Amino acid sequence: MEKIFREIKKRIDFRNSKNLNFPPHIHDDIELVFVKKGRATAYCDGKKYTLKENSFFLVFPNQVHHYSECVDGEYVVIIIKSSKLFSYKEFFEDGVPASAVWSFEMGEDDNAVLLLDIATNEFFRDGYSLVIEAYLTALFGKLLKFYDIVKTKMSHETILQVLQYCSSHYEENITVNSVAENLHISRSTVSHIFSSRLSMNFCDYINSLRLVKAEQLLRNKSYSITEISYLCGFSTIRTFNRAFLKRYGVSPSAFRKS
Q1: Please, are residues 40 and 69 in contact by the beta-carbon 8 Å criterion?
Q2: Alpha carbons 140 and 89: distance in angstroms, whole number
Q3: What is the per-residue pLDDT across 148-203, written as a single tens digit (0 to 9) for each?
């Protein structure tokens, strides 16, 4: 697992996925999720959303977001830089959506879903092209008129520093105090970031990073479960087992066997 928390994309990226269980992350790009089938819980800048069939979830650049509690379904995920949508660039620079979710009722999508389907099919058939940019520009033109964009002057530098530090040190005995001391910010600032912007406490977030690595190592038979526990930063095998069971619904040993 790379320890660089900020994701960087050079061009448009499409993904068809049955699962959206990603830990909290942040990037400079726009992220758009369309739920074709299924349900999920999403978080954006501390707000909790329920994603249901035929709904869009729109994340602006530098908003902290993650997903959980996904029911097996079909999700289209698009990652795109705002510079690729030049006509609407000011929307993404001056504000954020009051709500990240918009659900269309049947017949009320103003052809947004059709444009999404065409762009997705073009991408998986022929790869990236300027034609796809044109379809996505039209798609966002349809979507943005349904979103209430509110002005914001909030700085994302502190939250980015905190998340990057956690991503680089989660294997250690990391605490709120150690993060605050090393970044020269207050303990209350660190706690506030997790409670208000991520809607989760510090320990749960660190465990989510550790469990992503644990899942990868469990697929490698070179390490015992005890070794994996300590490699990922858990203080005891009991703590590891309890955290893994809570997230995945099975024990580490059962996960490895499956």
Answers
A1: yes
A2: 11
A3: 888 765 456 788 889 889 999 999 999 999 999 999 888 888 888 888 777 788 99
What radius of gyration, in Å, describes the C-alpha atoms of the chain? 20
How far is Cα 196 from Cα 190, in angstroms, rounded to an integer?
10
Residues 22-54 as b or e (16 or more Cβ within 10 Å = b) = bbbebbebbbbbbbeebebbbbbbbbebebeee
Nearest to 93 by CA among 31, 9, 151, 44: 151
pTM listed for this prediction: 0.67
3-class secondary-structure state, position 66:
strand
CA distance 215 to 231: 12
**Strand order across the beta sheet in which 65-68 lies:** 47-51, 40-44, 65-68
Question: What are the Cα distances from residue 132, in Å, to 11, 36, 89, 146, 181?
Answer: 11, 20, 17, 22, 46
Residue 52, amino acid: K
Give the Å distances, CA to CA, from 183 to 189, 198, 250. Answer: 11, 19, 36
Judged by DSSP in three states, 79 sits in: strand
DSSP 71: P
Tokens of 7: 């994701």
